[in-house]
Amino acid sequence: MRRRRLRYYRRQNSEFAAMLSMLICFVSVIRLLCSLGIGAALDTALIKLGSNGGFVNGALEAQIGSISGSYEKALTSASSLAAAAMAEKAVPPQQEQQQPTSDAEIVSPAPKADIVLRNEPENQSPEMSYEPASEQLHSITFTRKDADSIEYTNATAYTPDDLALLTEPLEIDFSVSGPLVLIVHTHTCEAYTQEYLDQYDPSDSWRTTDQSCNIVAVGDELERVLQDAGIGVIHDTTVNDYPAYTGSYTRTFEVIERNLEQYPSIQIVIDLHRDSGVSESGEAVATYYDNNGETTSQVMLVVGTDEGGLPHENWRENLKLALALQATANADHPGLMRPINLRQERFNQHATCGSLIVEAGFAGNTLSEAKAAIRLFGESFCRFILSHQESQ
DSSP string spanning 355-366? Predict the structure, then answer.
C-alpha cells in the first residue's frame, strides 16, 4: 500500500511539473505576442472562449484531470500571471521621421487646433453599411448659409464666389448607364499609423505595398458604400508610386485615360490619398472627428487650377462639385471636413468635369479612423449623387 501511495504522489508531482512547464511556456508566448502588438486580438479571442483564468484552468483540467487543492492554488497563481500578460497593451512601433517628398506630394497642414499627436489607439465602432433613406433623396438646393459654411486654404490668387458656384448647374450627367465614379490612387502605397491587426511591412515611412493596410483599403470602403447605394463605381488599384515615386501623376493619368476609354460613362474621378505632416519632433500628426462617440479622421478635398501654367479649362467645374460635396457633408456631419484646399497645380483634374483629390486622414491617423471617415463622406457623396439622379 505504501509503495502504491508513493507511486501515486510521484505521478501527481510529475503531472504538476508538466503543468507548470506548460503554463510558463503559455505565459512566455503571450508576453512575446503582446510585445509584437497583437495582444488585443488575443485578448478578444480568449474572452470569447471564457474568462482568462477560467480558460487556462479549463484547458489544463481537460488534459490532466482534476487536481488536489494545493495544485489548484498553484494553478490560480499561474493563471493570474497569464491574465496579467494578456492585459498588457501593445505599443505601436516607433515611426521613422518622414523623408521629404516631391512637389507633387500633397502636404497641406490642417488648422493648428485640429492637429493632434497620435498617442494611444482609440476604440472603434463596428463597420456599418450605408442604406440611404428615401426621405433624403429629394433634390438638394444650397443657400447662403451653405456657402458661408465652406472654408478654404487657398494657395492661389483666385477668390471664388461660393454661392454663385453652388447654385450653378453641374456639367455632369448623373443619368448615365454604366459606372459613374472612378476611384484611383496616385500614391497607392500611402499608409497610416499601425495598430493591432493593421500591421504591415513598411516600404518607406508610413507607406506599404500591402493593399489591405494602405490607402487602397480606404478606397475599397468608399467603393462599397457607393455600391450599396446602387451607384456604379470602378476602383482601379494599380500601383502608381512604387518602386518609383517620381512620375506617379503621369502614370495615374494613363490609368484614368484607360478607364475613361473602357467606361465612357464615367463622370467623376476621385484620386484618393491620405495626407502627411510631421511635428517638430518627427511624429506624424493626425486630425480627428467625433461621430457620436466614434473617433474618425477628417476628410479634405483638393482642387487644382490653371494658375500653375498648365491648361485646365474645367477647374471651376471641379470646384463646383467640391463645393457641393463640402456643403452636403457639412450639413450631414459638421466637423468632418477640413477646409477645401485650392491649389495652383492641376493634379490630372483636367480629365473630366468632376475630378477631385480626396484626402482621408493623416499619416498619424489609423486605417480604421480613415475608413470610418470615408464611410461618412461616402454617405454624403451618395446622397448628393442620388438626389441628382432623381431630379434628372
Answer: EEEEEEEETTSB
CA-nearest of 30, 7, 17, 6 to 67 is 17
CB atoms within 10 A of CB 363: 23
Which residues share a beta bridge with 193? 366
Whether this model's pTM surpasses 0.70: no
Q: 185 CB contacts (<8 Å, ≥6 apart)?
A: 215, 216, 219, 236, 237, 238, 240, 252, 271, 272, 273
Among 248, 245, 225, smallest CA distance to 235 is for 225
Q: Give the single-character DSSP code of 190.
A: B
pLDDT by residue (tens digit) across 119-163?
333 333 334 343 443 344 456 889 999 999 999 999 999 999 999
Give the residue from 25, 47, 32, 30 showing the smallest Cα distance to 86. Answer: 30
Grid cell for residue 326? 463640402
Q: Is 217 exposed, middle or buried (0-12, 13-18, 19+ CB in 10 A)?
A: buried
Per-residue pLDDT tens digits for 292-325 = 999 999 999 999 999 999 999 999 999 999 999 9
Rg (C-alpha) for the chain, rounded Å, is 27
**Residue 331: Cβ-neighbour burial (10 angstroms; 0-12, 13-18, 19+):** middle
CA dist 78 → 45, 84, 248 (Å)? 20, 10, 55
Rounded CA gap, 168 and 171, in Å?
A: 9
C-beta of residue 34 within 8 angstroms of C-beta of residue 86: yes
- 231 CB contacts (<8 Å, ≥6 apart)? 180, 181, 382, 385, 386
Query: In DSSP terms, which residues pair with 342 in a beta bridge?
Result: 154, 303
Angle made by CA atoms 284, 286, 288, in degrees to the nearest 5:
165
CA distances from 288 to 94, 202, 272, 291 (A): 21, 24, 18, 10
Q: Are 82 and 56 in contact (CB under 8 A)?
A: yes
Please give the grid coordinates belonging to residue 212: 489591405
